[in-house]
Design brief:
Radius of gyration: 15 Å
Distance between the termini: 35 Å
Mean pLDDT: 87
Low-confidence stretches: none
Largest sheet: 7 strands, mixed
CATH topology: Spore Coat Polysaccharide Biosynthesis Protein SpsA, Chain A
Order of helices and strands: EHEHEHEHEEEH
Number of domains: 1
Number of helices: 5
Helix content: 25-40%
Strand order of the largest sheet: 3-2-1-4-6-5-7
Number of strands: 7
CATH class: Alpha Beta
Length: 176
């Protein structure tokens, strides 16, 4: 089974006031490479990004994919990332570039739940749906512009692993 990760990093970061993806992407990738994945695709849009050095990716292939339709919503960015994946990828782990505390164990947990019966699986924290998510190839064609938020998912409790965080403002970053 081949698993890829899609990191959504295409937004404008208007509440942050600067391209927060450039600051946070290395931390997200450092955590993601410790998860059971075979490749990583980073979706850029509003800002041109640069990938960190190979030392960060530790040999896992990491590619940048430009999404010209990023302003249509997170679903458009996700579709760009999914379209860039090879035909032999069975599922994609979806993470956000502004979640610097991503747990590699949370990725492994939601992948395990997904492996049992497919579909879409999301990590949950205190009963609330969060990231990472896993989406099987069969569901890739049904991603709406709003993203996966409105689609039914199975939840994988990850309270014991800690939330990946959600950096929206400079204050959020200082508190992290």
């Amino acid at each position: 089974m081949k698993i890829a990760a899609v990191v959504l990093a295409a937004g404008e970061a208007t509440r942050f006031g600067a391209p927060k993806q450039r600051l946070l992407l290395p931390r997200v990738l450092e955590r993601l490479v410790r998860a059971p994945i075979d490749e990583i695709v980073v979706v850029e849009g509003a800002y041109e990004l640069e990938l960190p050095s190979d030392t960060v990716s530790q040999g896992i292939p990491v590619r940048l994919v430009e999404c010209p339709h990023w302003m249509q919503g997170p679903g458009a960015s996700l579709r760009c990332g999914l379209e860039a994946l090879a035909d032999d990828v069975d599922a994609a782990v979806v993470v956000l570039a502004d979640g610097p505390d991503l747990s590699p164990d949370a990725v492994e947990r939601v992948l395990g739940i997904w492996a049992e019966s497919g579909g879409i699986v999301a990590a949950s924290y205190e009963g609330e749906r969060g990231h990472p998510l896993v989406i099987g190839r069969a569901e890739w064609t049904a991603v709406p512009d709003e993203g996966l938020r409105e689609l039914p998912v199975r939840l994988g409790p990850c309270d014991d692993l800690g939330s990946p965080g959600d950096i929206d403002t400079p204050t959020d970053l200082r508190e992290n």
